């Protein structure tokens, strides 16, 4: 029975992602947020539970990628699509540019499954982090609509994040092999600053958190190469 527990968590990730897509199309960003957070929790614990129970399997790995494709691949494309619809109303084709994020998320997930360099850390932006960045845009748009509901910003954002998904930029994961400060210094700093920034700005702070992630990852890997 225990071998099915990680796959159940993965399926819950997928289920939450499906609901999030429907909520995004309906414009209910608060419901989207709840579902994305749920997907993130299920995505984090399915692998952990599989390792703890020693029930890792090939089907679990494939199912995880398929679930992530919906929750962290299709969903951010839908959010970008709905934002671009506000800029290009009336049946324009430009909003479909948002689904470039979905296409490159698929490429990212396929690359991750085959790339043996990414067993401990990431090469390229991981799809959950990208999804949380995209999720922050509607929140920022509520306060600064002239900044976000802007065709140049939205198109450039879709193109830039798509590039980052398949880039060769090294980023640390939040998998702790130990609690040693010297090894995990930048991970601990990132966690602490993320909590502080989120407490101050909530979802509006996510772009700053993403930038911080890139900076601290660069410092982390630069230290390892010295």
TrEMBL record:
Subcellular localization(s) per the UniProt record: Endomembrane system
Name of this protein: CDP-diacylglycerol--serine O-phosphatidyltransferase
GO cellular component: endomembrane system; membrane
Membrane topology value: Multi-pass membrane protein
Gene Ontology MF terms: CDP-diacylglycerol-serine O-phosphatidyltransferase activity
PROSITE patterns attached to this UniProt entry: CDP_ALCOHOL_P_TRANSF, PROKAR_LIPOPROTEIN
Enzyme's top EC category: transferase
Transmembrane segments: 7-25, 93-110, 122-141, 147-167, 188-216
Keyword list, A-Z: Lipid biosynthesis, Lipid metabolism, Membrane, Phospholipid biosynthesis, Phospholipid metabolism, Transferase, Transmembrane, Transmembrane helix
Stored Gene3D superfamilies: 1.20.120.1760
Keyword Lipid biosynthesis: yes
E.C. code: 2.7.8.8
Catalytic activity: a CDP-1,2-diacyl-sn-glycerol + L-serine = a 1,2-diacyl-sn-glycero-3-phospho-L-serine + CMP + H(+)
Pfam families attached to this UniProt entry: CDP-OH_P_transf
Record family assignment: Belongs to the CDP-alcohol phosphatidyltransferase class-I family.
Gene Ontology BP annotations: phospholipid biosynthetic process
């Amino acid at each position: 029975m225990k071998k099915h527990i990680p796959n159940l968590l993965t399926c819950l990730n997928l289920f939450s992602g499906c609901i999030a897509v429907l909520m995004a199309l309906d414009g209910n960003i608060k419901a989207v947020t709840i579902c994305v957070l749920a997907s993130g929790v299920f995505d984090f614990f399915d692998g952990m539970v599989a390792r703890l129970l020693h029930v890792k399997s090939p089907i679990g790995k494939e199912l995880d990628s398929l679930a992530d494709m919906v929750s962290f691949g299709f969903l951010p494309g839908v959010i970008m699509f709905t934002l671009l619809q506000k800029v290009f109303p009336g049946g324009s084709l430009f909003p479909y540019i948002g689904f470039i994020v979905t296409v490159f998320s698929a490429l990212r997930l396929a690359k991750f499954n085959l790339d043996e360099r990414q067993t401990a850390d990431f090469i390229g932006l991981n799809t959950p982090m990208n999804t949380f960045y995209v999720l922050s845009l509607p929140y920022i748009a509520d306060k600064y609509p002239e900044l976000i509901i802007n065709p140049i910003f939205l198109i450039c954002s879709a193109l830039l994040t798509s590039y980052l998904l398949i880039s060769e930029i090294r980023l640390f994961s939040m998998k702790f092999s130990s609690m040693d400060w010297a090894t995990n210094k930048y991970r601990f700093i990132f966690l602490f600053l993320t909590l502080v920034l989120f407490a101050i700005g909530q979802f509006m702070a996510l772009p700053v958190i993403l930038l911080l992630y890139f900076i601290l990852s660069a410092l982390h890997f630069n230290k390892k190469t010295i």
